[in-house]
Write a structure and sequence with these properties.
It is a single chain. 36% of the residues lie in helices and 32% in strands. It has 106 residues and is α/β, with parallel strands linked by helices. The radius of gyration is 14 Å and the shape is globular. The N and C termini lie far apart (32 Å). It has helices at 3-14, 59-73, 86-96, and strands at residues 21-31, 34-43, 48-54, 78-80, 103-105. The chain contains 3 helices and 5 strands.
């Protein structure tokens, strides 16, 4: 896990501006013998908006990922997500605090 901040810093230097339509996806990866969730946000052009390595797939972790992505890239107009319960719950909680809600597509 010590390498992740170094990778993220290098990633941020070369990152392109994010579009207004995002897609969220997750995959499992093995890190030091333990399985983790790698969550990714990708814009419509296929550019990576943000990524986050998580131990748990829950509403709090999903909300943390969305808030980090929005803080660093601005808010999207629409987000396409999978059918997990964590992402819609996190986006609904974020939309409750926003003036212009983010459209959720599944």
């Amino acid at each position: 896990m010590k390498l992740l901040p170094v990778l993220e810093k290098a990633f941020r230097r070369r990152k392109r501006p994010a579009g207004k339509s995002w897609r969220m996806d997750e995959t499992y990866i093995e890190v030091k013998g333990q399985w983790k969730y790698l969550c990714r946000a990708v814009d419509k052009a296929g550019n990576t908006v943000d990524f986050l390595l998580l131990a748990n797939r829950d509403k709090a972790a999903a909300r943390r990922h969305f808030e980090k992505s929005i803080d660093q890239n601005g808010g999207p107009d629409t987000v396409t997500i999978d059918k997990s319960g964590a992402h819609p719950a996190a986006l609904e909680a974020i939309n409750a605090d926003r003036e212009a809600p983010i459209k959720i597509r599944q």
